[in-house]
Amino acid sequence: MKINQQEAIFRNELIFAADAKAVNVENILLNLFMLLNTNGVRPKQLALSGNKKDVDIDTVRKIFSVLEDRGEVNGFKENQEAVEYWLRCNLLNMVNRGKIDKEKISSLRPIHLESYKLRNAANARDYNTADQVYNMLNYSPSVRDELKKFLSEGWDKSTNKINLYDNIDVDSLGILMLIKDIKSPTRDFVQSASGVQNITPILEKQSSLFCDDVRRLLLYKRNIPRNILLDYLKTLVAFHLSIYIQKLIELLPKMVDAGTKEIEDTWNIVLDVTDNYESQVAQLASSDADRMNNGLYEYIKCTFQINSALRMLKLEKNNSANLDYALSALTTRRPELEIYYQVQWDTLSATWDEDDKEIVSEFSDYEDSSFNRYIELLMRLRGNYQYRFHVQMIDNLSNKNNERGFMAQGRSKRHPRRFVLGTRLLETLTQINLLDTDSGYLSSKSVSIEELMAILRERYGLIINGLDEERFAGADLNTIEAFKENVSAFKNKLRQIGFYNDLSDAFILQKIRPRYEI
User: Fold this and answer.
1) Which of 229, 296, 443, 512 is 20 to 30 A away from residue 341, measured at CA?
2) Contact, 380 vs 363, CB < 8 A?
3) What are phi and psi of 41, to 5 degrees?
């Protein structure tokens, strides 16, 4: 059964700018660097020197060979095997890594703002996910510009030359040596008409929190080695994107019901910190993951409803005010909405044969309006596809089964998805939250276990000890024991990554201390 291609489009920048795909976090960062460098415009890439062949390892070797012939580097030809090992491990992102017949370069690693200039665009797609991050950064232009300034250190954009006075690290220098002869936009890139729409994110508080975390991270730029700070940035970007889409899944249906974006944010999840699928708290964390998955149907349906209301109102997806008009139209059920979709339904049904009409009647007869019938039709035709790819996208953004993430799943059906807390993610969140920003000067601070758990709950909605939560009021003995075990595991995890050491029995001395101090 065919429908108009325009009607089947799900992505709506006013809600979430990304397409639901199994996206790679490295590609998100690479494309974000491109958007930062071009002020939100996606440049079209031309082949190097007119050659339509993809960039491969031989291309990179030739670049270094030419640089050595020009006297700009030395030792490459005598140490080609060692240099290639360095390139593969430190500078290049690969697809099908290790499979000789399928291995390809996707891009340079997102180490420097200019990294995107040497890439195979088809293998470095981010499915517009970087657009969402860019819009969130635009919520605080000062943070966006500070991030851009940090990422571009070592490169003078006005002269297109390397600036060694910035004391850049060897990996950044390697990236800059590879791209320094690529001119933009006059030869190797051309300006594209497409760019990121200047849209205020629908979840403004979440965007503000993301900007604040990036700001806190950049305060360490002279204290933390660049490669570690970039690893923290990558962890933060994926973490906040995952929280953003999960909050939308819970809050968007409430927005449609209320007819406004101004609703209370009550999202929170229980984290299983024990790393044990059989622990008691794992059941609570798994229950919250099920709640998220079960909410996907209503989220997808509400997105289709908003898209359809915008279409009836003849409003584009490039103005945040248009979302308010769409929500209002859905709440009041304006008469023209029903009339418009009665015509649409009649036009579609005229193309169906008898078998199609019989299939549609199985669900359409139970709907009380043409608009509801139309939305249900979209859900039947595209809902399953969107559900499947949303699950994959959330898995990737949550870094499932990864130390940077907060979601895990076992191979057995007995071990379904559950929310966890990877050590790399815990390290990142702990370090950026051990800053005293309230006093007149900036400094690191130490906090207790209870204070850190309260910070994670208040800022991010992450519950480790839920005994004070309203939804666990009157908890039974098993739930109390589950959270007690979770807190103990949280302490052990902090010990493992070097933030916590309780050598003394004195409670006042049992503090979490920052790894990098300001």
Assistant:
1) 296
2) yes
3) -100, 135
